[in-house]
Write a structure and sequence with these properties.
Elements (H helix, E strand, L loop, with lengths): L3 E4 L2 E4 L4 E7 L8 E7 L6 E6 L6 E3 L7 E6 L4 E6 L8 E8 L13 E2 L3 E6 L1
Parallel strand pairs: 2-11
Antiparallel strand pairs: 1-3, 3-8, 4-5, 4-9, 5-6, 7-8, 9-10, 9-11
Length: 124
């Protein structure tokens, strides 16, 4: 069982930056692939970024590639999402998720555990 708690969301102007954190409980965090997803009002939840258990492999949605960076610190049981050059269309609730599979999936049904989400609002 893994419990996930996101933090770091908030209100930022377009062009600004935020760093989201996701703290995980449990001793087996380092064995889980981790992902970030987001859901804007009236839209379906969408993939943002994912990282393998080792941190070697990362994947990004085209919409955030070059602006967002996913990373993890297994010693701290934490995964991060550094978001730069934010745009109003990045406004959403951001969720982190953990997958017991041996690869970081790009679909939400590939993840086993979810945090409650943190709101990111980007003003124009």
């Amino acid at each position: 069982q893994v419990q996930l708690v996101e933090s770091g969301g908030g209100l930022v102007q377009a062009g600004g930056s935020l760093r989201l954190s996701c703290a995980a409980s449990g001793r087996t965090f380092s064995t889980y692939a981790m992902g970030w997803f987001r859901q804007a009002p009236g839209k379906e939840r969408e993939f943002v970024a994912a990282i393998s258990w080792s941190g070697v492999n990362t994947y990004y949605a085209d919409s955030v590639k070059g602006r967002f960076t996913i990373s993890r610190d297994n010693a701290k049981n934490t995964v991060y999402l550094q978001m730069n050059s934010l745009k109003p269309e990045d406004t959403a609730v951001y969720y982190c998720a953990a997958s017991g599979k041996n690869y970081p999936g790009l679909r939400d049904n590939e993840y086993d555990y979810w945090g409650q989400g943190t709101q990111v609002t980007v003003s124009s």
